[in-house]
Structure prediction request, 135 residues.
Amino acid sequence: MGREAELALIAGTRRVRLWTRLSSLVLAGGALVLAGAGGLVGAALAGLVVEANLSLLVLVMDRAPQWRGTSLKGTLARFFLAFAATALACFLVVHFQWGRPLAFLAGLLAPILGLALALISIAVSPLKTKTDHDR
Prediction:
């Protein structure tokens, strides 16, 4: 991957994470209005789980080996551990009813909403990258 493509990927990742965080805040506010303090706690916990999951996935991808001829067993194991940690966190929140479970589950939709909003923002204001004729 070229340097420009890598910079565009980093900028796109930052944009998705920004919109995901904003979506989590909006969902938490909506949960507060609709379900009270329990809804706010559930949606806020979902936002924390989503942020931790995204951070783990970015960490795994940053430390992944190059895809040419090297074993991916370690990377796949790290993906599995990140998934297991996220699933465990979700189980604990729902099992012990820390906040409203429905608000928690709705808060887990923040990455989908964040990705959609990031794609819309890219369509409206594309990332600035150099093209061949700009050089």
Notes: The chain has a mean pLDDT of 86. The first helix runs from residue 3 to 62. The two ends are 19 Å apart (CA to CA).
